[in-house]
Amino acid sequence: MQLTNILQNIEIQNFHGNAHGQVSSICYDSRKCEENCLFVAIPGLKTDGHHYIPEALDRGARFILHERNFTPPDGITAIPGEDSRRILGVLGKNFFGHPSAELCLIAVTGTNGKTTVTYILESIFRAAGFNPGVLGTVNYRYGGTVMPAPNTTPESFDMQRILRQMADAGASHVIAEVSSHAVDLQRVDDCDFDLGIFTNLSQDHLDYHGNMEAYFSAKKRFFAEVLPRSQKGRPTRMIINRDDPWGKRLLAEVPLPAWSFGIETPGDIRVESMTLSPRETEALVCRHGADPFRISSSLIGRHNLYNILAAAAGALAVGIPEKDVITGIVTIHNVPGRLERVNLPGEPDVFVDYAHTEDALEKVLQNLSSFHRNRIITVFGCGGDRDRGKRPLMGRAAVTLSDLTLLTSDNPRSENPLDILNQIEAGIPKGGIRKYTAEEVGKNKLPEKGYTVIPDRRTAIEKAIDIAEKGDIVLIAGKGHEDYQLVGAERLFFDDRLVAREALARIKGEKGNRP
Questions:
Q1: What contacts 360, CB < 8 A, 6 or more positions away?
Q2: pLDDT at residue 514 above 70?
Q3: Spatial separation of the C-alpha atoms in residues 256 and 310, rounded to whole Å
Q4: I need a labelling partner for 35 at 20 to 30 A (CA). Which of 147, 278, 335, 453 fits?
C-alpha cells in the first residue's frame, strides 16, 4: 500500500523521504520487520522502541515512524510523530481498510465477569444464526480459527488486523473484552463500537493505575470518549450494572443512551424472581415495555446471574430476538476456568475459578456457601509483579468465607513466592482463625476454621482434594483457564483442572483397590 494512503488523517510535519513509497507491512516489534515494511518506534512501558530502529533497518524496514530524534540513512523514509502509540492504531485502521465499520462491535469492560459475558453473547449470536468472533482473555476466535491471547485486548494494530481477518471470514458480530490498560493505552480508539457493556469495578491493577479513581477514569474514558466516536450512523448505547456503585457513577456522568440492569436496584433489565442451585440458575427477567421472560442456565451463582443479565441486555440492545436470547443462554454449559466443575458424579465437588481479586473471590465463595452442605476448602495464591495491595484483602476474604484455606503459589513471576504468601497472610484476622501445619491438615478432622501454607501449587491442590469429604466443596482459585505457571523467567505447563482431575482419579482408584 502506498505510504500516503496509510498516513491518512495523521498530521505529519518535517517529513523526510518518499511519500509515495510502497509499504509491504507495518510492525512495532523489530523482530517481525521485513523488506519494505514500516516500523513504528513506540516508547513502551518496559523498553523504548527507538532503541530497535537499527535492528528494524537490518531486517528490511524502509519507513520509520518515530517520536525521538532520528536521522535516517540514505534511502530511508523518516516520519516524525508526536505520539507513535496513538498513531499506530490509525495506521492499522488505514492499512486494513477500517474493518470495524463492517462489523457489529461490542465491548465488554469491568473488573470481573468480562469473559463470561463474551461467552454468553457468543452463544446468543449463534442461536440467532449469526457468525460471532470473540477477543478476550482465554483466546481470540472466530469460525474455526482459535488464536492465543497475549493480552486481553490486542495492541491497536493487531486489533485492526484481527478484525479484518474476522470480517473477511464472514463474522457478523465481534465481542471484545476491553481492559482498562487497553483504554489507557489507546488500543481501541480507532474502532467503531456499537455497544459498551460495564459489568462492575473492584480493586485490581492498582500497580498500573495507582488508585481506584484512576482505574475508574480509564473505564469511564471508554464510555465518555471512545464509544461516542463511532461513525456508523446509528446510535451507540451503554449497558450498565446499576447495582454497582461505579456503574451508578457512569450512568450519572456519561450522557449516552443507556440500559441498566440489576438484581437489587430496579433497572431496564431486572430480575423479578430467581432460583439458584448448585446445578442451575433460573430467573424471571423483566424489561421495560415488554412481557417478562424466563431464563435457565447451568452457569451457577448470583454473580453469573449478573453476567447473564449483562449479556441478555446487550443482545436485546442490538436487536436479537428474545427467543434467541433465551436459547443462547440455556445452550452454554460452561466457561473455561470460570466456576468450572471438574469432578464427575459421585466425586467431591471441585471447582476451578479465575477469581484473582478480593471481590471476585468473595462473590464466588459467597455463592458456594449457599450451596454447600459441609466444608468449603479453598486453594489460592496471588500473582507476582502485580497489585500487591489486594494480597492481604484476598487472604482475609478467603479465610473468612472458607472453612479451610490452603495458601499457595499462583504465578510468582520474578517475586519470591514466600514473600507473596507472607503478604497474603498479613490480611488474615488474628482472632478465631487458626494456622495449621501442612502435616496437621488431613490427619484428623480440624477442630476450627483455619488455614495452612503449602507453597507448591500441585501439592496444595492434591492435599485439598485428598481431605475432601462427602458434602465438601473444593475451590481452586486464581488461575482458571490458564495452562501455565510463570516462575521466574520460565513458563511451565500447569493446568489446575488437569491436576485436580488427576487427584480425583487417583483417589477413586485407591478406593477401588481397597479390599
A1: 111, 112, 202, 303, 353, 354
A2: no
A3: 17
A4: 147
